[in-house]
# Entry
Amino acid sequence: MNWLGLWRRTRNALAITSCFVGYSLFAGTASAQQSTPNILFILADNVGYGDIGVYGGSDLRGSPTPRIDQLAAEGLRLTQFLVEPSCTPSRAALMTGRYSIRSGLSLVAVAGTPFSLPEEEITMAEMLHDVGYATAMFGKWHLGGQTYSQPQNQGFDEFYGIPPGDTWDAFGMIRQGHQTKSVDIPLDRGPHLVEAKRGEQLKLVKPYTEEVRRGIDWELADRGVEFMTRQKAAGKPFFLYLPISRTHFPNLPSKRFEGASRIGQFGDSLMEGDAIVGTMLDALKDLGIEEDTIVVFASDNGPDGPGASPFGGDMPDMGTTGPYRGALGDVSEGAIRTAALIRWPQRIRPRSSYAMFSIMDFFPTFAHLAGGKVPDDRPIDGIDQSDLLLGEDDSGAREHLLTFVGSELVAVRWKQFRAYFADVAPGRSGPGGATPMGGVGSSAAPMNGYPKVFNIESDPQEEHNIGEMYNWVLGPLLKAVEEYKETLVRSPNPPAANMTKF
Amino acid sequence: MNWLGLWRRTRNALAITSCFVGYSLFAGTASAQQSTPNILFILADNVGYGDIGVYGGSDLRGSPTPRIDQLAAEGLRLTQFLVEPSCTPSRAALMTGRYSIRSGLSLVAVAGTPFSLPEEEITMAEMLHDVGYATAMFGKWHLGGQTYSQPQNQGFDEFYGIPPGDTWDAFGMIRQGHQTKSVDIPLDRGPHLVEAKRGEQLKLVKPYTEEVRRGIDWELADRGVEFMTRQKAAGKPFFLYLPISRTHFPNLPSKRFEGASRIGQFGDSLMEGDAIVGTMLDALKDLGIEEDTIVVFASDNGPDGPGASPFGGDMPDMGTTGPYRGALGDVSEGAIRTAALIRWPQRIRPRSSYAMFSIMDFFPTFAHLAGGKVPDDRPIDGIDQSDLLLGEDDSGAREHLLTFVGSELVAVRWKQFRAYFADVAPGRSGPGGATPMGGVGSSAAPMNGYPKVFNIESDPQEEHNIGEMYNWVLGPLLKAVEEYKETLVRSPNPPAANMTKF
# Structure
């Protein structure tokens, strides 16, 4: 038995003892727990910080999310969960445990781009597969379309979902009705759903029509349940990554959710996403593996904002950031702070935590909990937060977070402060629109009017630049930047270009 | 033992007893209820829609409000409580049950203004006094300083608090250290707290220093508890109006609340306000009059915003609107939608309601519940919402609300839509800065680019003008405007000027 098993036993003994003392929240059959936890990771798309019930949504917004709220009641609610500003970057960071800029994916992958998750990246799925996990991904990959980047070649035993290199266009095409060509995927007959087993070539399953789009997340859930059922029967720990598509524009809820909310199709889709989460939670219960499974619900980035969506049209169709400034594609708090709930019965004490937690932190945290290996031949920006999860430490292990757009380091968070080193060009739509002006990452460009510093907690709208008054803050902020820059000497970043900022 | 000691003892006894009874929220002696309810109305200052725990604040913001949240658990949470854009207008609307423009108070009263609550206005206090209520107001009046406007001459038996004509300057002076002259109140020795019994002349009590400002709301609470205790002893129903000052700039929490929150002095002050609400709730319980008393907690307008406060300085010191656009002094949703909780055990079923409810609606609603008379010689814009409160009707009786700035009708809400008929001049600070450009209320001015129409529910940031697509909305919207205009034929508005917008 390794040390992990040892302290699990000790802890279980303690838990059992505590049953007789009155407080019985953690009662049950602790000793029967699986040795390594299953991981069910549900990633929502463009859900803002203020959308979920336990984040100020619910009746206040007119789109209740009781099943996701249930995760908060039974698990850990992170009130400072930080991501990257948009879809591809956040997903790259989640899969690799590194800033997306290290894999060249710090902008959004669009159809035909050669920028794609590099073969040599080690994903969370590879890490878990290496220690015996069954791995599956059903949904939206969005890390480039090259063969070596596809989920079935990046650690997943099974993949079903939206074409991995064309997500953005696939959403767009439905609405716009035009076609596109793709890298390495025969989509010239229009967008199709695809699937593959480990190492296989992608197969087209069926046309990705509007009707299929309306129902796809239920397909993903069904496949997810079937996968979990198989692994339970086989006695194998599993990692199921379920990046659902509900709340991404254009929002197309299923017929039975149309009009369910008070706030239009975004709200309807949010409620449908909640029902899908509920389906997964019910399945875990039915399979009797609730206590053996870590469930994460998280959102990839802030909500779609005005102007951010090229298909936005006149009618808003998006979530809310709560009190924070900005939206998807910005670098302000509303773009990079989202919802995250983590449940692991008997192990994670139900509570709310203000600890800073990055989407990159899941990689080393899961590695710790599953006995996996964190690569030591490259910089890993994620921090092991298992002490936070397990209640050994309530302040968390993270104090700072960098935010990149394209090749530029644009902003840095340190404790409650945020510094901007550059602005982002206002023309946000289309490839090339995301060139930051200057930035601490660029060589000799002047920093006119920068850095700007804001106190996110007392000034969530980032309207009071306190850079002059609080210039001492730049010390620790720049230290984080320097530490990052030092890693570039041995591990330079690949080029990042020809993509779009959202 | 003084009365305070007495109720503390009683309370402990009750606490011990309750251990043996279990769940008893709705248990007990309905038949023993007083025939007309007491009313305790706590009005908060510049608390935004998103600040209170049950409105998305709490741990999410770092300034928990458990005692106010308790009102939501035990009473009605209104998620669409609508006010006027700033302090004086909202308070005028509350007291008169009419749009503030009808009493000439649609801008903020500043020191020396002749615009003051007219003698002939009938206040909520007068209405309740006429049906046998003991009435008291402790706190901030802010409806002008003329003798006839003062609380003790507008229906209140007792008044103690901030000078009624100088609130704004009184806050300002503390910070700025300069002095001002006042109408009818001898404040040339600097700001003082004042008091008066019904019909008396105001008396100076003590200098309104920074130390007094820090502690004043506790004084108000103590006087409130003492007043309620007296009325309980006398067997008289009471109306206690408690407009506290905590969250108005400059935020000066008591020493023991300094640093209590994560977000600075605004949050500290919010938490202190919560404790003050708790003190009042405890007192009701200790006096055994919980079930006989309607408790309202509401905020007068949206939070102070950047630029709105002439004393704002570099450091933010304000609340949040949640997802809604704007702040104090604007006419957008963030300025006019705030928190409101109403508790009346056994009569109001605990729940959340999306019904539209204006601050003006309290007047006719209380008149109905207390057997008072709503004036019939003048337009009353408030609507009796007692059916909503008592659960007879869950959609509420209100479908629209007009918003004025100065003499202009600037915006109208109808169902989930908001139309703007004019913009508000951007220069917001100082008297005269609030002149709207054009507006449906003005005669022949062109409406360049107006009206603009927004769907508040799906577009809380008011970024997508849907006026062209949804022009049918203007029908019912303009009908509300026409109905208002018709009332002006017999009851023209008094002039409103020489004041400031926030």
